Automatic annotation (TrEMBL):
Skewed-composition ranges (Basic and acidic residues): 29-41
Domain Blue (type 1) copper, chain residue ranges per copy: 63-180
Protein name as annotated: Azurin
Region of interest: Disordered: 25-58
Native species: Sphingobacterium litopenaei
Entry keyword set: Copper, Electron transport, Metal-binding, Signal, Transport
PROSITE patterns (alphabetical): COPPER_BLUE, PROKAR_LIPOPROTEIN
Gene3D superfamilies named among the record's database cross-references: Cupredoxins - blue copper proteins
Signal sequence bounds: 1-18
InterPro entries: Azurin, BlueCu_1, BlueCu_1_BS, Cu-binding_ET, Cupredoxin
């Protein structure tokens, strides 16, 4: 209730001022104000408190992303806590073997040329499609996994936006997204 009180008061004050009347009194005198004519002040006061709750849930230090046999991640945007050790888990919820429908999750440094990375990744089967020549572009990555498997890795990201892809050949055009560290 404490969190809701402030926005509700702010809204009530704004509406009271908008109503005209004695402006110098309304800020301190809102408790005596006729509430029947300001029913909407109470309802708008509740949503005003919501963003606080939403933002604490948004950035996490442990995220799970699913991939499937349709060459898709289930999320295109992930929010994590900046400057904190974050665990990223990739879960392949499909059934196909990793040789056919392998998926991984690779977080790339900002500014990485993704198509060029993909060209090199295609040649890097032995290293889970992480090209040694472009290792410096990789902030973190999972193993290549098949249906029913999962793999986790840890990263610490400075505040910012990072691309993530699946670097299995032919997948990165569709299997991609953004990680926002905040
Ligand atoms: Cu993939």
């Amino acid at each position: 209730m404490k969190k809701l009180f402030k926005p509700a008061l702010a809204v009530a004050t704004v509406l009271a001022v908008a109503c005209g009347g004695n402006n110098s009194q309304t800020t301190t005198d809102h408790s005596k104000h006729d509430h029947t004519s300001h029913d909407h002040a109470a309802t708008t006061g509740i949503p005003a408190g919501e963003p606080t709750t939403t933002s604490t849930e948004a950035a996490s230090d442990a995220v799970v992303i699913e991939s499937d046999d349709q060459m898709k991640f289930n999320k295109s945007e992930i929010k994590v806590k900046a400057g904190k050790n974050v665990t990223i888990t990739l879960k392949h919820v499909g059934k196909m073997a990793k040789e056919v429908m392998g998926n991984n999750l690779v977080i790339l440094k900002p500014g990485t040329d993704i198509p060029a990375f993909g060209v090199e990744a295609n040649k890097a089967k032995d290293t889970d499609y992480i090209p040694a020549s472009l290792a410096s572009s990789v902030i973190g990555h999972s193993k290549v996994i098949g249906g029913g498997e999962q793999d986790s890795f840890e990263v610490t990201l400075e505040a910012g936006k990072y691309d993530f892809i699946c670097s299995f050949p032919g997948h990165l055009a569709i299997m991609k997204g953004v990680i926002i560290a905040e």
